[in-house]
Write a structure and sequence with these properties.
Structural class: mainly alpha
Number of domains: 1
Helix content: over 70%
Radius of gyration: 24 Å
Distance between the termini: 84 Å
Strand content: under 5%
Order of helices and strands: HHEEHH
Shape: elongated
């Protein structure tokens, strides 16, 4: 009886990865790698654009067209872009680590490496979930404020 329980616990912890699953993981890792590299490229572009905004903002400040946007200084948008790049960097990094480790795990039939790859996938989805909740909360906070400000502007007319 005790031996059966021990065998059941052992089999519950083991998982068989078929050749079809390995092939699917390889394909997934290739696409994940492609998307992660694109993510890093976009992060670089966002950082470049934000640095341009920060560097050029003193020169564009005197221009009536570029000086401010909706009463907000141009340099503020540069800072916002840097924050956006920092937030976009982590999903790209987690996706890249998943792709790299999943490919190595399948090629070398290495259990610990596949565990690490799925840990990165978990981190990716946790980060995206938290960001989604934060953005939705921000929307729920900003919508009533926008409605109230709009109503007060209309009542002043």
């Amino acid at each position: 009886m005790e031996n059966e329980t021990l065998n059941n616990e052992t089999t519950e912890k083991e998982m068989i990865i078929s050749s079809e699953i390995k092939q699917n993981l390889l394909t997934t890792s290739k696409w994940a790698n492609f998307l992660a590299i694109l993510g890093f490229i976009f992060v670089g572009l966002i950082v470049f654009i934000s640095l341009l905004m920060l560097i050029l903002s003193p020169f564009l400040g005197s221009s009536p067209f570029f000086g401010t946007q909706f009463g907000i200084p141009f340099v503020f948008f540069g800072i916002i872009y840097i924050v956006m790049a920092a937030l976009y960097f982590f999903p790209a990094l987690y996706l890249y680590n998943f792709a790299l480790k999943a490919k190595k795990a399948v090629e070398n039939n290495h259990q610990a490496m596949i565990d690490e790859s799925f840990l990165n996938l978990k981190k990716l989805f946790r980060f995206l979930g938290i960001m989604t909740i934060a953005i939705m909360s921000l929307y729920l906070l900003l919508i009533p404020i926008i409605v109230i400000v709009s109503m007060s502007k209309l009542s002043c007319m």
